[in-house]
Amino acid sequence: MKINIYKTKQEVAVNFSSYLSNLIKEKKIVHIALSGGSTPKIVFEELASNFIKKIDWSGVHLYWGDERCVPPTDADSNYKMTVDYLVSKINIPQENVHRIKGEDAPSKEAIRYGEVLVKNLPEKNKLPNFDLVILGMGDDGHTASIFPHEINLWNSKNICEVAIHPDSGQKRISLTGNIINNATAVAFLVTGEGKKEKVDSIINKKEGYKQYPASLVAPTSENLIWFLDAAAAQEVKLD
Ligand code: 6PG
Pocket around ligand 1: residues whose beta carbon is below 6 Å from it? Predict the structure, then answer.
């Protein structure tokens, strides 16, 4: 595990963009799972501006770690956010963008998307293998769309599950733990003061930390990288 702490969100965005740009250069075809949330939004803005000339997106395939069960035109759609802030601004073949269909019947879509991953991704440990899974973490310690009240979904044998947001009741489709932890690399993008307690619990393994789905992120490759800003990392002491 590697922990990177930067002063501001903006620095997180710049440094993560530079990490991503190097990773994309390493291979002809790169499979990446994106996340929703506010931090990826700033990263996408950085990728679409200062990194626009530095990245060749033609061999990059984009997927999502989770999606809200809404149409792709809805303001809540992670796909829409990514199109608005990134996909519409870069040169990426349309067939490389593999969205979760939030408008379809959730349980059927969870199965279909799992099949898309099996078909498109290389296999490792008999499971689809992402080159990179990008994750955020909610103030409640959720990651992707696995929330504390449904933490058992993390260990599902299925590639994707239908999850329910604890407050709004909104259905979500989420990758499960086996597939997230099968990725070659996993990056946590976590910023803002609201995250400091859960970051402290999880990184410092404080009592009760295992109730937070984000604590279960442990890729078998051991390649887990945290990109934190100082506000989220207030309680993290690096050696
Ligand atoms: C989503 C997510 C979710 C998100 C966290 C953190 O679709 O809501 O993928 O897991 O990453 O809630 O979001 P912020 O970066 O906005 O805090």
Answer: 35-39, 66, 78, 136-138, 142-144
